[in-house]
Structures are given as C-alpha cells and as structure tokens.
Amino acid sequence: MVACLKSTILTSDETPMTLQIDDLQFGYAGSGGFHLRVPSLTLEAGTTCLLLGPSGSGKSTFLGLLAGVLTPERGRIALAGQDMSQLSGARMDKFRGTHIGFIYQTLNLIPWLSTRENIALGLAFAPQRRARLSAGVADTITDFMTRLDLDAGTLGDQPAGLLSLGQQQRVAAARALVGAPDLVLADEPSSALDVVNTEKFFDLLMAGLDRQRQVLLVVSHDARLAPRFDRVINMADLTGAPKMGDMSR
C-alpha cells in the first residue's frame, strides 16, 4: 500500500513560498523497494521541518529529489520559483550551488583543506550567494565560525581532518549556511554525536539560520528532535513504512 502526504504545510499567506512540491512520485522496484508519493507540500521561508523515519525508509532518497540529484518519475519540485524539472546538467549544478545548502551524513569535508577553506567551498560555485554577503568572504567565515562555536583564531587554518567530530559537523553546517541559500538540507547530521553534542549542534544550527528567508529540512531517525521544529513529517506518510510514534501537533 502506498501512503500519501495529503496536507499542505503553510505558515502564512503573506510569507513568500520557498519550496513547492506537486504530485511527486518516485520509487524503486523489488521486494526491498518502496514508492514515494507526495501530492502537495509547501514549505514557506523561515520554516524548520523534520522528516522522521527509520534507517532505510527513503529519507535520503527524498533529499536527493529535493536537491536535484535524483529525477522524479512524475511531478514538480519548484524552489525559489524555479521548476527544477526544467533544468538539466550544468544549469542544475549552478542552481543547486546557488539555492541549496547540504549537510551530508558523511560530512564530505576535504580533510587536507583548512576549516576556512572548507567553509568557503559553499561559495565557490555560487556567485549569488557571495553577492548576499554583507561583509567580505573572510569576515563572513569568521562570523559563521564564531556563531557555530568554532575558534577562528585557533581552528581557522587547521586542516579539517584534524578537527574533532563535533567540530567537523559544525564546519559542514557553516559550509551549508554561508551565503544564505534558500533551502538547507541535512541528512542525519547528528547521527554520530552523543546526546549532549547533538543538543549543542542543533542549538548552533538553528542560531545560524536566516529565519526570514531560509527553509531548513532535516531528516533523522531521532524522534527526540521533534520539539525543535516548526513542522514534523513522518516518513510513513510518504511511503507507508511503519511510523516511529505519533508526531502529530
């Protein structure tokens, strides 16, 4: 049986739309496959959303669709007014760099580059994100390091591979947030952290958001994170998988 997300998430008629999904369908065949169907979903600028589900339930696949890495079988994903299905190749890569920040579960830092250089990668192929900076790149990176509790003086020139796991997580968050992309996606960003460091990480992540213009969508298996978010979607509502508790609000 295929379950659907039937409600539209909307915060205010006066808030400009950031992410709009219509009649999205995607699936994998076989005994271990699943089918994802989202008739209608809208996330407004300023919204923080948690997509909750167990490992293997398709959360990362959904993020891949939103990031334009995967192509839906059917439907429309529009971000910042652009129907992403109309983009391909280099245009999609450019659009992704400008409008989407991604915090990977495996972090994807370049270990021999410094903390500053890794954060700056978020701006490398995104001139529009650089143009949003109110200060220079160096000063902006220093500001993000301070906001994410990273000592710019001590750690700024440190190779990322020498940082602690918690520090690396925060560098990955800064890289995704710098230049205020419209959509910030995070794939199990705290899966390798203990409870205390998970709390600290999300405190800092939320503080680093521009709540006037950005959407944050986090996927996780940890239901304890739910109270931190404006909206909670259970993966079972998308795929028909077993629910991880009642997350209704």
Account of the protein in words:
The chain is α/β, with parallel strands linked by helices and 249 residues long. It has a single domain, classed as 3-Layer(aba) Sandwich (Rossmann fold), CATH 3.40.50.300. It has nine helices and nine strands. The strands form two sheets. A five-stranded parallel β-sheet has the order 6-7-8-3-9, sandwiched between helices. The protein has a four-stranded antiparallel β-sheet with strand order 2-1-4-5, with helices on one face. β1 (17-27) and β2 form a beta hairpin. The chain is globular and about 50 Å long. Mean pLDDT is 82; it is low at 1-15.
Question: Major β-sheet, in short?
Answer: 5 strands, parallel
The general outline is globular
Please, what is the CATH homologous superfamily? P-loop containing nucleotide triphosphate hydrolases
Strand segment count: 9
* Proportion in β-strands: 15-25%
State the CATH topology. Answer: Rossmann fold
Give the radius of gyration: 18 Å
Offer a quick outline of the entry.
This protein has 249 residues and is α/β, with parallel strands linked by helices. The protein has helices spanning 59-66, 89-99, 115-120, 127-131, 137-147, 152-155, 165-177, 195-208, 236-239; strands spanning 17-27, 35-44, 48-52, 74-79, 82-83, 100-103, 183-187, 215-220, 231-234.
List the helices and strands and how they pair.
Blueprint: E1 17-27, E2 35-44, E3 48-52, H1 59-66, E4 74-79, E5 82-83, H2 89-99, E6 100-103, H3 115-120, H4 127-131, H5 137-147, H6 152-155, H7 165-177, E7 183-187, H8 195-208, E8 215-220, E9 231-234, H9 236-239
Parallel strand pairs: 3-8, 3-9, 6-7, 7-8
Antiparallel strand pairs: 1-2, 1-4, 4-5
Helix pairs in contact: 7-8
